[in-house]
Design a protein that fits this description.
Blueprint lengths: L9 H6 L6 E3 L5 H8 L5 E5 L4 E8 L18 E8 L6 E9 L2 E8 L2 H6 L11 H15 L3 H23 L7 H6 L2 H7 L6 H5 L2 H11 L3 H45 L1
Antiparallel strand pairs: 1-6, 2-3, 3-4, 4-5, 5-6
Length: 265
Amino acid sequence: MSAESKYPTPEEFLIKVPLYEKVAYSDEDLEEGSKIRFFSETFDSYCPSCNTHSIFEPVGGYKHYSYYSSDTWLNADFFDITVRCTRNKSHKLVFKFHVEEQSIQKIGQIPSIADLNLFDVKKYSKVLSKHYFQEFTKAIGLASHGVGVGSFVYLRRIFEFLIEESHLCAKEKSTWDDEVYIRARMNEKIELLCEELPRFLVDNKSIYSILSKGIHELSEQECLAAFPAMKVGIEIILDEKLEIMKRERKLQEAQKAIASLSSSV
């Protein structure tokens, strides 16, 4: 949802809101539904055909939603929105919606939300094993199909993998006390591993408790509402690992270059 509204923006409705999730509009907010029905904006998204991000524009002759009465959209049982890539106008994304009373529900789209979102996470395959990268994409896929609790299961498994990966590194130190670690709770384990873990993870260790609560206590809808924040949290942790990897590679390249110069000068 946008910061200014309790309803998804048109762009969010197209590329982020899961299939079959109903968005009900109050009498005073019917105009928000018109923004979807008479979509007339451009937005940035991944184009599977171009295999890169592009600006998309709506296909069709609708005027801006303000040209219509705020409740005009209530007369439509079904409607489609087609947008095209401005790089190549033959590349299109298609979305199908159902209107019931004062609610709008996305009931189909090509390509899927998962397809539109997976491009941006490919880079994390460099810091996640094949197995856990697949679990990350499964989490995204489940959330895109309205499965909130299941998506949390996979995100928590990735979080646990990151902790265990650091644990194995810490065990190599002579000062490490594994008995203390084994008896510790997750928050305490994170503190014990603070020198090994990405800073963001240490500062936001509550991610694990939120994921655990989602699996055991929260509803599907509550998990889906929290999923974007949890996903971004995991991504920031992985971004830190990517930066460390990039820096180490630069250091190695610089050392080789300097060594080569030293031997030739």
